[in-house]
Amino acid sequence: MRLRRLNRPLVVVLTGVENAGKTTIGELLSLRMKWPLIPEAARTDAPVLAGKTTLEDLQRLQDQFIDDVEDHRRQAASDVLLCDTGGLVLDIWASEVFGQGLARTEEAMALMDLHLLFHTQSEWHPDPLRTLPRLEDRLALQERYRKRLKESKCAFEEVWMTFGAERYQRARDLILAHGTP
User: Fold this and answer.
1) How far out from the chain centre does Cα 122 lie?
2) CA-CA distance, 135 to 4, in Å (whole number)?
3) pLDDT tens per residue across span 67-122
């Protein structure tokens, strides 16, 4: 269904477990479709990169994410705004590591018009931010993402394709089908 959006872009978050290709596909969509991309803030955050992340750091990243999305929405420079991860990822990360979620998660999720839940890939691709090399662990966490999205009543679709080109095409098609001006 095509939706008409007045003075604001369709806001799409690429979410899911590590090793799912969110960053790669987000960068491809941004490059090929000319859609702005809010990058995953954790990839450049000093405490995260030093392996000394605190609950306060994750809350700071959550607040920063919300501010970034709101700033981009006000600018409305494109029909679509992509977000590489977002509030749900940060909240699940906080819950897994620190045993409690973050404030403003529901607010962060509600800013999104569409959540694209990327399935983890079976082949492990090491990355400084990744901590779950066992496929079974990633699949269990992936179910937690699916459950949270279903419970939230947020619009979401799943991207499960095996190959990069198929994943890119599926993500692009879902975004376009969801409704852009």
Assistant:
1) 19
2) 40
3) 999 999 988 778 999 999 999 999 999 999 999 999 999 999 999 999 999 999 87
Cβ atoms of residues 92 and 148 within 8 Å: yes
21 conformational bin, left if phi > 0, alpha if psi -120 to 50, beta if neither: left
From residue 74, alpha-carbon distances to 14, 78, 96, 148 in Å are: 21, 11, 33, 28
pTM of the entire predicted model: 0.90
CB proximity list for 65: less than 8 A, separation 6 or greater: 38, 41, 83, 86, 87, 90, 108
Q: How many CB atoms lie within 10 A of CB 176?
A: 14
As a whole number of angstroms, the distance between CA 119 and CA 162 comes to 9
Helical axes 87-98 vs 55-75, angle rounded to 10°: 180
Distance of CA 160 to the CA centre of its chain: 15
Contacts of 52 (CB under 8 A, 6+ apart): none
Residue 4 predicted with pLDDT over 60:
no
Distance CA 118, CA 167 (A): 9
